[in-house]
Amino acid sequence: MDWTTHHGDFFKGAPCLVTGGAGFIGSHIVEALVQLGAEVTAIDDLSGGDWANLDGFGDGVEQVTDSILNTDALATATAGRRFVFHQAALGSVPRSVKEPVLYHRVNVMGTVNVLEAARAAGVERVVYAGSSSAYGDPPVDGPKVETMIARPLSPYAVTKLAGEYDMRAWSHCYGLDTAITRYFNIFGPRQNANSAYAAVIAAFAKAMMGGQAPLIFGDGEQSRDFTFVHNAVHANLLAARCREKLGGEVFNVACGDRVSVNTLFKSMAEQYGMGDVQPQYDPPRAGDVRHSLADISKCREILGYEPLVSFEQGLAQTVDWYKDNLVLD
Ligand SMILES: NC(=O)c1ccc[n+]([C@@H]2O[C@H](COP(=O)([O-])OP(=O)(O)OC[C@H]3O[C@@H](n4cnc5c(N)ncnc54)[C@H](O)[C@@H]3O)[C@@H](O)[C@H]2O)c1
């Protein structure tokens, strides 16, 4: 992606901190910022990420291997930064059902620590990785709009929502400007396929490359607004650049299209040359929502966002990336 076409020289020389910078989405934000000439610091405790995700572009990046629960390390990493892109979190719904206390500690207290460090450092804006899981299962089916009441269904969703509310509170009480990019099923190169809690596209890629039938939880007719990672990066950069005060506003980040898990399976099976394989079906998992589709009007209108990469284009790039890079455990 040529990020200068979309973001010019706005970030040239701008000191930025990316929390969770060794992770999937964080590493793509780091990559874009490096290309745009920003001065980048990344902090990550490597519980889910790997500095190898920055190979090829991360040489000039200050890499801090520490936790956002360590307030001293965070204060040092945040000092002098203009923008903070807060991506660090524990990210799996089913794991959060097993370890709710750990999820609250890392995702909620970690976020409060990031806000406090940003406040002390006089940061211009914190952009926070929110999650569509905050919506849960609303009573009316259809696109999720930011004005809907949140009805989270899992500890993970609650922790991500608490982080959103903290963003809002810190803006209102302390004048630290914040914005929330509420992601809908982000996928792409470098998403971890080897974790026991891998997201669906990564898990399917791993199964298919190992010659196995992927596992689908439920009947497969549940749907998601699968969003290629460059679209999420674009939304983050737009949110950081916005001239208006954002005051903790939430922006859905997605493509605005619904794809069922069965359709995803068929498309990936064709691309991996496994068109004859049937998936295995298991019962639905606790905490999973049935349908997830975004209304992206607000992000369009206020941030000027448009998805840069379609689901089909992104899926083809992702399948190719796993073919070239995935080392099976
Ligand atoms: N991938 C998605 O579809 C999706 C959807 C909604 C929201 N999000 C949010 O986006 C963000 C990035 O997710 P991702 O998919 O890139 O996952 P990821 O696991 O690849 O990235 C998260 C990073 O945070 C790091 N981390 C975890 N705990 C930490 C701690 N205590 N201190 C420092 N670093 C820590 C991990 O090591 C990892 O590198 C998360 O906040 C996640 O909740 C992701």
Walk me through the structure.
The chain has 329 residues and is α/β, with parallel strands linked by helices. Strand 1 (15-19), helix 2 (24-35) and strand 2 form a beta-alpha-beta unit. The longest helix has 22 residues, at 100-121. It has a domain at 11-187 and 226-255 and 289-308: Rossmann fold (3-Layer(aba) Sandwich). It is 39% helix and 16% strand. 51% of the residues are buried. Residues 20, 22-26, 43-49, 67-69, 87-91, 106, 110, 129, 131, 160, 183, 185-186, 192, 199 line the site of nicotinamide-adenine-dinucleotide. The site of nicotinamide-adenine-dinucleotide has 31 residues, from helix 2, strand 2, helix 5 and strand 5.
Annotation keywords:
alpha/beta, Rossmann fold, 39% helix, binds nicotinamide-adenine-dinucleotide
